[in-house]
Specification:
Layout (H helix, E strand, L loop, with lengths): L2 H10 L2 E5 L6 E4 L1 E3 L2 E6 L14 E7 L5 E12 L4 H13 L7 H11 L2 E7 L5 E2 L34
Antiparallel strand pairs: 1-2, 1-5, 3-4, 4-7, 5-6, 6-7, 6-8
Helix pairs in contact: 2-3
């Protein structure tokens, strides 16, 4: 597969499906930076279990038609708050964060105070699989169990409702 498809998919990425190890893939909003993606997770942000502690992850990116066009392994590196890289990337990412309360500087300060993780995912071109080599069957999985799904009873009616 050519690295051009991977590079173009990274440049246009707003959402990536990212999985760590054998875990499920999570749709995470991201920001392209050079030839990599930056993702924030943690308290008050998106849920990405194990991503901050991982060394490698699998990144799936979609094309203009909304379907999967490329999948690649990526090297995960965590950005630390006291580094020059954090000072450059965190405010850019905070500016792209939708529905955030406060300014970008206040959001970055909250990320530091709450211990949120900023990770940089750098896909490896040699592990990239293009749409021609991806399996034809659906990648959809059954919904995960959640305590939010509760069966409800029919509403109680005191008097009989007559149809007209």
């Amino acid at each position: 597969m050519s690295s051009g498809v991977l590079d173009e998919a990274i440049k246009k990425a707003a959402i990536a499906w990212i999985s760590v190890g054998d875990g499920p893939a999570y749709a995470l909003w991201c920001m392209p930076v050079e030839s990599s993606l930056v993702v924030v997770s943690g308290p008050g942000e998106q849920f990405a279990p194990g991503l901050a502690e991982s060394q490698r992850a699998v990144v799936r990116l979609r094309g203009d038609h909304g379907g999967l066009i490329v999948q690649s392994e990526a090297v995960v590196s965590r950005l630390m708050p006291d580094t020059e890289e954090w000072a450059e990337i965190a405010p850019q990412l905070a500016g792209k964060r939708l529905n955030a309360s406060g300014t970008a500087d206040e959001l970055v300060a909250r990320w530091v105070a709450d211990g949120c993780a900023l990770v940089r995912l750098t896909p490896a071109t040699e592990t990239a699989i293009g749409s021609a080599d991806l399996p034809a069957e659906s990648h959809a999985s059954a919904p995960r169990e959640t305590p939010a799904r509760v069966e409800t009873r029919r509403p109680f009616r005191l008097h009989r409702v007559t149809k007209r």
